[in-house]
Amino acid sequence: MERKRSDEKSRRKPSGAAVPRAELTAALYRAFFEEWAERGFSALSLERVAARAGAGKAAIYRRFSSRLAFADAALSALGLGIALPKPERATLEEDVFDLLLRIRAVLRHPLARRILPDLHAEAARSPEMRAINDRLAEARREQAQNLLDRAVRRGDLPEMIDRDLALDLLVAPLYWRMVVRGQTPTRAELMVQSKAITAGLKASIGDVGRT
């Protein structure tokens, strides 16, 4: 009987100072975004975040030193998920359409629609949040950079293309429609957007790149 109790004890999972579990970290991220969407970053409470995740506040401070550090980690994880590489399509227009579909999938999430405007407002007031927002934007733009690289290799776009302008043009119409105006375009509307964006990339930006 004693040996059985000893065996059970040896099989127990460590607690307290145990290595942070990935599933708990994911639950904390979800709770953080829910709290942010509901109350805004300025009124966000780490105690309420912990309660939403079914954890103690110590679980947060074992991982993150502050609300800003928490936001940085959570948004970085989201940015990396958005920037995962996707298969190359046959044409620039198909690549653009595929990119718009994936961005729409992110922006149509109700939490994203409520958090992003607040994130931009906080970034306008806080240099620290501005740095976090810039890193997230860079992760998003990296995926679009790959799209431009493929287009240049195929000869669809000139090597001297104005990349900053091109990256803005790729995502700005959809972002304006969904985040600023609160509308979700249909698949057919995305196809029209992709045609217009592709035409703009090949015409206006191509001419700038050759001057």
From TrEMBL:
DNA-binding region ranges: 45-64
GO terms of molecular function: DNA-binding transcription factor activity; transcription cis-regulatory region binding
Domain HTH tetR-type: 22-82
Keywords: DNA-binding, Transcription, Transcription regulation
UniProt keyword Transcription present: yes
Keyword Zinc-finger set for record: no
InterPro entries recorded: Homeodomain-like_sf, HTH-type_TetR-like_transc_reg, HTH_TetR, Tet_transcr_reg_TetR-rel_C_sf, TetR_C
Family annotation (PANTHER family): HTH-TYPE TRANSCRIPTIONAL REGULATOR RUTR (PTHR30055), TETR-FAMILY TRANSCRIPTIONAL REGULATOR (PTHR30055:SF148)
Protein name as catalogued: Putative tetR-family transcriptional regulator
